[in-house]
Each structure stands twice: as structure tokens, then as C-alpha cells.
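Page 47, continued from p. 46.
Same chain as before, 185 aa.
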Amino acid sequence: MGSLKKPVITHIKEVARSRLFTIQQVDLEFSNGEKRVYERMKPASREAVMILALQGDSVLLIEEYAVGIDSYELGFPKGLIDPGETPLEAAQRELKEEAGFGACYTEQLASLTMAPSYFSSRMNIIVAEDLYPEKLEGDEPEPLVLHRWPINNLTALLEQPQFTEARNISALFLLREWLIKQGRL
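Result:
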């Protein structure tokens, strides 16, 4: 792997902008001389975290409205990393804001991309254990519903109609593998 020569970006132009998103046109020239025009979201300056919070024999999930699909989605707590924060610090803050817990132990399992042909954002997957109650005020427009799911039945989450988001599913398998390596599954 890595034997291909990366294309040269010959020009970048903003083609659309909203309050949240900027779309760029990117002119590329490949090593074989082929020229193409691609579109992408402007590369993000901030990464995000997703927290796999373990409490006893359960993992914590939240139920939150997802405007993109106009439905409530079941998933792991998550959020953006604030400027100056590390992924582990952001995981602590987001866990307190969304689930009402802090963690004595955190570990980063992976850093994932989503649709890298169009987006540059990264989601840092963090496992959190030895939880203690601590609530911080978050930016959610309504209270989030907290759910506990048994870790000995993780893959049954895939059968839940509200558990469909690809990053959550990826994190679920990372958690499962981590628990197996820990001798807990």
C-alpha cells in the first residue's frame, strides 16, 4: 500500500456556503495526467469524540433527535472537541454534558473518518470506565434520554431500528473487540 502518487491540487474554489457548511470545488491532476474536478466540504478544523461509557455490565447510550433523518437516533454520547482540548478531555466533558457522568479511566480506541471522499472530519472513539455522577450543562435543545445496554448482548443493538448511524456501528465493533481483548466477553 502507499505505492500511488497523490494527485496535485491545482485550484480550490468555494462554491457554496451555509451557516454550518462550506462546499469547495477542488481541481486535481493525477500522476497519469488525468484532470478531474471534485467537490468536498471545506476541511474541518475541529475533530469530535464518541464515548463508549461502561457502567457495570452495561454501556450507556443516549437517544437524540437527528434532523438529517427527522427521527430519534440511539447512539453513544458524542460531540466536538473544543479548541485547546485533547480528545480525552473532550470525552470527559461530553460524557458529563450528555450522560451526567465523569470517568476515572479513559482510553482512545481509534480515530475514524466518515465519507473521506467528501469530508475531512475525524471521530475519536474513547472508552470510559469507573464512572461517577457529575452533570455539566450541555448545548442540547432538549433533555437526552439515557439508556443502558448489556455488554453481553452488544450485537443485538444492530437489530434496533433507532441504532443505524455508521459511526455508532463502527464504535460498537471496536468496543466489542476491546472487551474481548480485556477478557470480558
